[in-house]
Amino acid sequence: MQASASLELIAQDPTSSYANMVRIPSGIFAMGGDAGLMDGGSHSHQTSYPIHEVTVDAFWMDVAEVTNRQFAEFVEATGYVTFAERPLPEADVVALQQVADYNIKQLRLAADSVAGPERAAIYESIQRIKDSSQLLGQTAGSIIFELPEVELRSESDITQWWRIEAAATWRAPDGAGSSWQDRLDHPVVNVTHDDAAKYAAWAGKRLPTEAEWERAARGGLERQPFAWGDVFAPLGEDVWMANIWQGVWPYENTKEDGFAATAPVKSFPPNAFGLYDMAGNVWEIVADRYHPKAYSLRTDGAINPTGPDVDSLSRLRQRLPTYVTRGGSFLCSDGWCSGYQPGSRQALENDSPAHHTGFRCVKDVN
Hints:
- By secondary structure, the chain is α+β, with helices and mostly antiparallel strands.
- The protein folds into 2 domains: 1-82 and 184-366, Alpha-Beta Complex (paralog of FGE (formylglycine-generating enzyme)); 85-168, no CATH class.
- Helices cover 22% and strands 13% of the residues.
- The protein contains 7 helices and 12 strands.
- Helix 2 (90-111) runs antiparallel to helix 3 (116-133).
- It is globular.
């Protein structure tokens, strides 16, 4: 059943410390993956189980994703330099080069056992890794999506559509030749968890927990597959509810929703809590560290959970801190990740900013 609109919860006073935020009421909800996706067919739902009961206290949440305009104000006021704009530490360069060398070695072994177009595709992957490796001595840059020009040789080889672009930062969302200044009201991208947390602290806010984010995204609805209800296109087939991928993934984006990449925030209808872009546009970084079995480790009936405990995380031996992202992006489709559904979740390493990832903030109720 569709919850009634709660737009009166939006702070109306522009001078208030809660301006452009929505008060999310406290409540109990069933947290976890969406119906029909428990078989693991969705890349972004594979760690979203079991479904479990969670209680969350009331909090305030930004009505939209943090924009380039807002992030620029933070940078101007503080002089902050994001991870993507800094040179990689020497230790990281060495570690990443070792990973690249290992991947190239494995790909060459695979190429020895095939021929024709498949072999050619493998060597294209090798060249992409080599090209990215040449950038390791420059600024860290960010990860950019690029349409593959040939048929995928493997759905698990992300180098076929992702590349590291040293020039890609929040200032240049798509790399060299692009600028944030013609996207003032688009969500800021190419940021890490640490970048987002620094902005949030400057703004007198914080990043949401994963449980808070899902509570807000569901808009008071219980176990519905979308942030707006149980029907994908409730306003008609010509009215898109979120900025996602249309067409054949990953070769063709038909842009039926009007956007090939990010859209200005509030370009699509809000959910029942009055929040915009809780589905699609950009993945949103949350406060919780990522663990693939986080929900199995959690006690049913948890109150205000904040993520896995330190011991559980230490056993993972993550290369570096890895955080949860939520909500999907303009690259999400039914054929790939279904990430725009409210139960989806993915991981983001803290040295891997990407041009489909941003954030929004929350604030405690005083």
